[in-house]
Design goal:
This protein is of the alpha+beta class and 219 residues long. It is 25% helix and 29% strand. The chain is built from four helices and six strands, in the order αβαααβββββ. A hairpin with a 5-residue loop joins β3 and β4. α1 crosses α4 and α2 runs parallel beside α4.
Length: 219
Amino acid sequence: MKRHLVLPVVAAATAGLLLTSCSSGDSEPDDDIAGVQSPSPSEEPEDDEPEEPDDAEDTPDDGIDRPEIELPDDMTKEFEDVDTDDPDERAVLADQARYASAVDEAIAAGEVGPALGFYATGEGYASALELVTGYHEDGYRVGGSTRYYNRSVTMRDEKVATSSYCVDFSEAYSVDLETGEEFPDGDEQGLYSFRQVLNDAGVWQVESWTAASGGDSCD
């Protein structure tokens, strides 16, 4: 049975979509990819209390009604803190972490819930749908512990930021949904870069992202 590695699938999903992306986020994703059920990115979230990723815990309450993110019991995500007191930078990083969690939630569920459209727009949303579809069609999900480190953020203007992190997959694995068999993802590390835009609701949505092998950037 096909082994479904995290990093190669992410890289394949983003290839051709995001490497030269400079869009404004106005493009509409195809919501009918391979039968994956997905809400419109503009759909209002349910009135649930959010399950915040680690990085969001130190972010002041911004009054935004956020959708709940539920991850499998065997999945943990550790986001390394960034040494910054700038409230805008911390908000960007918090929503970056929420986006990563929303993607894994959709992969685990086999369908896209409110969170992904809440934290993504344009190509950032479309490429995540493609990633979720790949796992859904092959019958896998993600499990284990994933660590996000060497995180950075740069404010480009009041409503645009770029951010990045390295990902350590050494304790993560893919799970065959039919057999329950686990496939460790090995020691390969990934480098992810994001373009985030501030929407009218005050959310720093991921507009586009790229993935590559970590190399020297993730040592």
